Amino acid sequence: MSKNPPANRVSVIAWFVRGTWRNIKRVIPRAYAFALAFVICYLTYQALAYLIIGLLRPASSPPQITQLPRRMDASLLKMDRSSWLALDATDRPRTPPSHYHRIGDWIEPDRQSGCTTSGCHSSLPHNERKEVRAFLNMHATSVHCGVCHMKTDRAPLSLTWYDLSSGNSTNPPAILQAYGLLTSDEYEKNRETPDSDYQSELVRLLKLAAKEADNLPALKQLADHVSAVRATSDEFKLLLVQAREALPRHFRGEYGAKIGMRGVGGDPILTHPNTEKLIAQYLEQKDTIKGRDRKDLLDRIHPLRRDKPLDCSACHRKTDSLIDFARMGYPPARAKALVDPVVVEMIENINKGVPFHLPEFINPKR
Amino acid sequence: MRPEVNMTRRRIFHAVLALTTISIAASPLSADDPDNCLLCHQFRGLGRIDNETQKIHAFYVDPDYSHLRQGPHARLACTDCHERTEVVVVPHQPVSRVDCARQCHLSNPNGIDRRFSHDPIESMLASSSHTLETLGGLDFDGGPLLDKDQSSCLYCHDEPYFRLPLDVAPQLADATERGIDRCNVCHAETVPIDVEYDLNHMLARLQPSRSPLEIAQTCAVCHSDSKVTVEHKMSDAVASYVRSFHGKATLLGEHHTADCLSCHVRAGENAHLMLGKDNPLSSVHAQNVANSCRSTQCHPGADPAFATAAVHLDIPTAHGTIEYALAAIFIFLTIFTFGPSALLVILDLLQIIVGRVHHPSARIEKLTHEMMANSEGRKRLKRFSPGQRVQHWCLTILFVTLVLTGFPMKFADRAWASFLVDLFGGLSIARNVHHWSGILLFLGFSFHVVQVVISSLRTAKRAGPDGRPLGLVKAWLAMPMWISPQDIRKTMQLFAHLLFLRKERPTFGRFSPAEKFEYLGVFWGTMLLGLTGALLWGEQYASRFLAGKTFNLATIAHTFEAFLAVIHVGILHIYNVIFAPKVFPLSPATITGNTPVEKLVEEHSEFVEDAAMELGFSVKADPTA
Prior knowledge:
The structure holds two protein chains of two kinds. Chain A is mainly alpha-helical.
């Protein structure tokens, strides 16, 4: 800029703009040259370092080979699947050596539940009573901790499904809806006079169900079969029978959604409200805090906690179940299975901690 | 098609569909899970964490394994492996460890179960390198991988799945289903066999039960474990394998390349009999390895000498070998050819950063403008003829294709490598594209060489300063792309200028020394890459004339030369023709043949002067300048 700025205001502005523009024009090429020089230096360094290190440092096996979980430790549940590059490198990744059965995608904790994301509870939180712990954990994929552990006076419980990827309230899982379609009056009507709208809806739900269950091939294949035939064909009718028989095999709690307590606005309650600071305090002091102080802090962290959690028979009972399965979107046939007397009896035995032999129904062959 | 035939087919289809439906409906859970264990064990969450050891006890079993008959063990009941008396009670009694050698019962559609046991494997292992004592004594980095009393089989085996060769014949997936329907017309009841199971089993056995990558992952459990390898005085065999061609192909998802078992298990022999390389019976013993390489599935026509090529070559640990020396030479050459070129570019940019402005000669600037204003002058200042530009773009396209298809092999363990290979439709296609691009490049190169030779011959016939023909040697040395002593001197002057040791910036003729250097680099690189590439491509034939080590050397030369070419082109050439401030956003030289005036004035003033002199422009120095 010139050293003698003009006197009037317009001229001052023009002088200032011209000067600034001149400076910008002078700076841009330098900045550009600097950026280029930096990029070239960086790339040159990377290239030459690659060569020299490659000559000096013995090779190690790449992550596609070695990044597999080696042990079945609790730390597995804290990691994303993406941490294990070798899992995705093959179609059928092997399990940690100590475990024979393929575990596939099961190491996916609930990313929406405050109980697990806080770092306090694992995705398999129950480990005290041998009789029930595994059965309780079995519900971890489809039921939020709050259903049994958060207090409420309402009976049946006020519940909602929540989406595992967003944490928002959502519709009942597609597989339940599809099974509803296959066990409703519509089903019988379609067995007599098939309807293409019914077929389209069934295909949509089956595809969605497959997606929700980690792209389960069996459901995808079923959807493809149902969509491949004409609604008016005899094949469609036969496929309806097949689908009706096949779907219950996939009621495994892998719905892409879980049941949680329903809050005032309809949203799920996935954590105890306003407890972030207390949780941080607890995690900091958990090894040192003892006795009464510990109990007080834990009580403050869990303001909604029931004094005594619900037991299995609170929901798995023929009458007065705390879960209104029909309202939660369970088709009558599935709801009936969940409160089947034989199941209830078995659950009661488990709940009481009474060892029992598996009933004969478990083994239809014998 | 005749209507009655069509009708018959429809009837058969309906009958089969009905049979399938009935069979599923009648026995929803009994056929594939006779004890109905999956009632509970199909839930992923069934399990717990041990508070003390933090170990996860996962009781989940993939129900589809049984329901869809996904593996050979789908025919077994859970109680074939797990003691019935222990699991029939809820909660299950403390379960004893599964003994893989215990007797199980294979269900059969005719109702007569067959007995089976893996017991013979134990005796096989006893005579192999992997004896149970060896496996039982393994000490892993970070502690034991198996619990006490767990079967050593678990080091290598988990739930076996049928691996259908769908990558070779994707239609098998559909054919299987149709085949089952057709077969079941008779084999469902009249001659009962489990068609789906048998068909899947047979198809799966057409290839190894695991992909090469899965096998590498399995072997790496021990052979890449730092503690195990040190204790057993082994190198990381999997790490060196994935540096080989086979290993890289494996990383890139190739299913038909040699895996660990391809070489380490004798043809037709059981994998459980694997022996160490020092055992004369081993497939990789010095006496046998040639035959292992030359098996009908691998390199059938190769000379026995081919086997001396190293599959487990890890250059950093190969001190004192010719391979190590060659790699070191290439790295040295790379640093001392690429390094100075990169330094020139960086110093050039430094001039702009510090604001150092070089004012070219006003006379040359004026002369250049005069030349550009003249149609003949403009024509003479085109530095690249149409033929040369076409050749350049052919080279560009082929070079990029070769890099895109070749570099995934060099960097096979990077995520982008798999992505690129997938873009080409798999490694086989990428390799084919690479080979054919190489051939085309070599043809183009040959065409260029012919052009150069013809041009030299013409020059040789022209009269020299003494009036006599120049001669072939002089004509050859007069080629414009040779780096002359004057070029070297001017390059030193340029360095001195850029390092602020010299005021005047030297100027060049039609081609700058850097351009000549690049040209000769392409010349040398194409020959070397073409020759080594052809050797590696036709390895079986070439092995009849060359020792196996030649292939190691060819691989090293090919990969290091390609790397040099890529960094030179990717960093410096791209800078010079795209990002350099004088030509940004793109130098028109290789499109129109024109060089920007600013660049001509600053870098090619001798070329301008020569052209002006030939056209009769006044090139006298301005006495007032």
